[in-house]
Amino acid sequence: MAADPSTPGATDASPDPSALGYEQARDELVRVVGALEAGSAPLERSLALWERGEALAARCEQLLEGAQERLDRTTASTGADEDGRPATG
Fold first, then answer.
1. Is pLDDT at 2 greater than 50 in this prediction?
2. Does Hydrolase appear among the keywords (predicted)?
3. What is the pLDDT of residue 1?
4. Number of domains forming the structure of the chain
5. Which terminal Cβ of the chain has fewer Cβ within 10 Å, N or C?
6. b/e string for 42-66 if b means 16 or more Cβ within 10 A?
7. Looking at residue 63, which CATH number applies to its domain?
């Protein structure tokens, strides 16, 4: 399948989502969703975009869960609550 240069993502040259940071994955996901919402891509291209979008969304979720775990560990070790306020007991 030839890459459509007007629509980023879902190409053979696209980086593996696992190599992307949160902002990169999110920005590409926004572009993929925009391309899908435009509805002008042929079926095969739309399927490739959908698959890329699923992979990007999973990467974003993975990174957000990791960030939440880090916050949870930090607040637990400092005795702070979820909002960063000192825990009262």
1. no
2. yes
3. 35
4. 1
5. C
6. eeebeebbeebbebbbebbeebeee
7. 1.10.287
* Domain annotation covers residue 51: yes
pLDDT digits (tens, 9 = 90+) for 29-84: 999 999 999 999 999 999 999 999 999 999 999 999 999 999 999 988 887 666 66
CB 9 within 8 A of CB 55: no
Asked whether residue 9 is assigned to any structural domain, the reply reads no
CA-to-CA distance for 51 and 20, rounded, in angstroms?
16
Please name the residue that has the structure tokens 């030839």.
2
Domain that holds residue 65: 20-76
Q: Is the pTM of this model over 0.70?
A: yes
